[in-house]
Design goal:
single chain; mainly alpha; 7 helices; 79% helix; elongated; disordered C terminus
């Protein structure tokens, strides 16, 4: 989805009465396939933005790491520790971004496999749960992404409601939450491993940067 399309979308929403926006969020108009395709495009745009943010954090990581090494070689341990703490926060955010990206990739893959109306309820239920978890994790890092993911979640929820009315099927919330947790757990494990492979460890004598055991994009 282009930035131009994004602006048109926002402008159209601003022109709509509140009651119409609420109605559309619950049950968006239009055929099923185009709306799923729209959701995929909007998620892919968020993935691209996460990639851009990840690159910025990577550059920041390299800069701070170099300062740590410089302070360490000058035996300025106090200064090295200050930078090490800053680096810890950078890497926590980097892991959150990477985990969010991996989770969104899984959602895109699932949405692309939906071909039958009966698949919608079972596929989109976990997808909405994952989007909500990722949205929460992005709140402090990317308010814009949080808003967009919330809108995508509303779009998918509307499709679920419509599909349920058409097929008589309902969401098994326990199964949906289990599937969502599996996606998030796997994304967290892969993200942690990639962070370890991507970034160098600190010199001996500097407290190593801890990675969070559980990030905000994981559900309990």
């Amino acid at each position: 989805m282009s930035e131009k399309f994004s602006r048109r979308w926002d402008e159209r929403r601003d022109e709509q009465p509140l009651t119409e926006r609420i109605k559309e969020a619950v049950r968006p108009p239009g055929p099923l396939k185009p709306r799923l395709d729209m959701a995929v495009r909007r998620i892919e745009l968020q993935i691209q933005k996460l990639d851009q943010a990840s690159e910025r954090f990577s550059q920041r990581d390299k800069s701070i790491f170099a300062r740590i090494v410089d302070a360490y070689t000058k035996h300025d341990m106090a200064r090295a520790n200050v930078f090490a703490n800053e680096l810890a926060e950078i890497r926590k955010m980097e892991k959150m971004i990477m985990q969010a990206r991996l989770a969104l990739e899984q959602i895109v893959l699932r949405l692309r496999t939906v071909s039958e109306l009966g698949d919608v309820v079972s596929t989109l239920g976990p997808a909405v749960s994952v989007l909500r978890a990722v949205k929460t994790g992005m709140a402090n890092i990317f308010p814009e992404a949080e808003r967009e993911l919330g809108q995508i979640g509303n779009l998918l929820s509307g499709i679920i409601v419509e599909a349920g009315q058409s097929t008589g099927l309902s969401i098994n919330f326990e199964t949906a939450n289990e599937d969502a947790q599996k996606i998030l757990t796997e994304a967290a494990a892969v993200a942690e491993q990639r962070i370890k492979e991507k970034f160098p460890e600190l010199p001996a004598g500097i407290p190593q940067v801890p990675l969070p055991e559980k990030s905000p994009t994981e559900t309990s």
